[in-house]
Amino acid sequence: xxxxxxxxxxxxxxxxxxxxxxxxxxxxxxxxxxxxxxxxxxxxxxxxxxxxxxxxxxxxxxxxxxxxxxxxxxxxxxxxxxxxxxxxxxxxxxxxxxxxxxxxxxxxxxxxxxxxxxxxxxxxxxxxxxxxxxxxxxxxxxxxxxxxxxxxxxxxxxxxxxxxxxxxxxxxxxxxxxxxxxxxxxxxxxxxxxxxxxxxxxxxxxxxxxxxxxxxxxxxxxxxxxxxxxxxxxxxxxxxxxxxxxxxxxxxxxxxxxxxxxxxxxxxxxxxxxxxxxxxxxxxxx
Amino acid sequence: xxxxxxxxxxxxxxxxxxxxxxxxxxxxxxxxxxxxxxxxxxxxxxxxxxxxxxxxxxxxxxxxxxxxxxxxxxxxxxxxxxxxxxxxxxxxxxxxxxxxxxxxxxxxxxxxxxxxxxxxxxxxxxxxxxxxxxxxxxxxxxxxxxxxxxxxxxxxxxxxxxxxxxxxxxxxxxxxxxxxxxxxxxxxxxxxxxxxxxxxxxxxxxxxxxxxxxxxxxxxxxxxxxxxxxxxxxxxxxxxxxxxxxxxxxxxxxxxxxxxxxxxxxxxxxxxxxxxxxxxxxxxxxxxxxxxxxxxxxxxxxxxxxxxx
Lengths: 286, 309
Hints:
The complex is a heterodimer.
Chain A: E1 7-12, H1 21-30, E2 56-63, E3 84-91, H2 99-103, E4 109-111, E5 117-119, H3 130-133, E6 140-141, E7 166-167, H4 173-177, H5 183-187, E8 193-197, H6 198-214, E9 221-223, E10 236-240, H7 260-280
Chain B: E1 5-7, E2 10-12, H1 29-52, H2 56-80, H3 99-123, H4 127-153, H5 158-161, H6 167-186, H7 193-217, H8 227-250, H9 255-285, H10 287-302
Helix pairs in contact in B: 1-2, 1-4, 1-6, 1-9, 2-3, 2-6, 3-4, 4-6, 6-7, 6-9, 7-8, 8-9
């Protein structure tokens, strides 16, 4: 594999119109199974979350806040209270230090020549360790319920399940290999989802933030553009109009393995203490 | 944005109260494995020490009990896989960044060694090979009993991750207690003194570490007070305390007291693993446990040097 420049997404939520073309394009290109039809009652969001079968998720946030800090104020029904409607197309962050990748025991998760993080579905054995290792709750197991063909507890090798592996955004690895941009970016009608080389996207994002700040947009901030953050910067980062947690994103994500060297030391200490403690139990008379 | 609440002086905002991190996808096989793997690791150590101390009855019982647990453990883990037929992929590589990978290798080495030793003991042949297998099993025992603590702590689940200072030690103490208790059940009383001590001292340490962990975790640790995690945490403490007390007071003289006490300890340690497992789900489900500590951390980092915009 020949290394290529690292690519990613810059998702500029200030121009997202919530059309969900990204969700649909992703589902179609990647042949993702349906997620069921469930009306959440949460604004226009009936997808709910990123999971094994939804690799783009548009969040809708209705707020009694002005869109801009001065100047024009939109209101509902011409009333005095300001309001705004935030939309954000969420996706796997393709972290520089990826918790899922570090946690994977089989090597099914790997880093591609484009710097993205992808699951090899012919290797994944569905151990599920990557799922709680992701600080963003992105990767998920595609699990079909146990059937009568499944073996009882003690006879696991006889069991049969139809999927049971983990799935997430591949940043359209197959399309990248063919020289195309990912399906979601291709489908986005407002260029809210921008695909490109990461360095260039970061420059573009800082310029865009400068412009929005000058224009007085309320709460404009970059999320995941800093290579010094807890996951070493996102491969897919965002321009948000409020705090990350408002969109369901963690405010200060840290890759779990950051603490692993110390954790292994604690474990070695625990193992030694156990050995010494049990040896002490053999002292004295019975 | 739905639901604002003030937790620890931080304004909590969330996306319709939805979780930020995913709940684990592990099934009950996994916490049961934490229990059986702990017994296996503890038994491997007890076995080696009993050999050195020339306590043959205890050496035999710990070998057989430990080996039984070593055989049950991989079956539980394979059963939990989404693709059980691919279990050998666990040994495709060795990754020190993945406690799951390290643990799979520990389990293979430990299980292989213990099973070999037990088979040769039963057949009464190949003494030198048996001794070598026993030595390997002895060395693999403590890592087997403790790595599972690191496995849980190396996640984004707040109640597990924040307990990274305690979980491996807690699992080690719990393993010592349950291995001791299991051997009290199967060892003639005259030879069971070290197992009794392991059960009693391990239980006392385990209770102390759990208490310290819950205190130190504070806000994040409140899941141990609610729901199923809370129920089983409380049950575990009562069972372990009662069992350890009974075993300490009457275990030497009365076989009934010894067996009852050991049984209570085993049930209590299983309940402990279950409560820790369930606490992870509760911790992931409510976004406040993820958001509030991270907000506080971010604020502490940015506040001193630059004003917040």
